[in-house]
Amino acid sequence: MIERQLDVINKLGLHARAAAKVVSVASRYDSRIHVIHNGNPIDAKSIMGLLMLGAAKGSQVTFQVEGDDETAAMEELEDLFARMFDEGE
User: Domain range spanning residue 11?
Assistant: First the structure.
C-alpha cells in the first residue's frame, strides 16, 4: 500500500470539476483508492464522497492506494494535484 499526503493548491479546492478529475483518474485503476481528510476516509471513485470532504485550498488530503497498479495510480494522482487539476490558478 502507498500512502501520501497531497496539498490542495488550486483556487477553488476540491470542487466539482476537480473531484470529477480525481474520480476519472481513480476509475482507470483496479487498485482501491481512498482519500482521507479530517479523519474521514472516502472512496476516490465516488464523486459525492469527494465533494462531501469539503477540502478547500490549503487543505491536505491523504491518499491510500492499494493494488497491483498502485504505483501508476499514485503517480497520476500526484501529477493531477501538482497541475492544479489543469485549472491554472
Answer: 2-86
C-alpha of 81 from chain center? 8
3 state SS of 36: strand
Asked whether residue 89 carries a pLDDT value surpassing 80, the answer given is: no
Catalytic positions: 15
Number of domains making up the chain: 1
> How confident is the model over 50-82, as pLDDT tens digits?
999 999 999 999 999 999 999 999 999 999 999
Alpha helices in the chain (DSSP H): 16-27, 47-53, 70-82
- CATH number, domain at 32? 3.30.1340.10
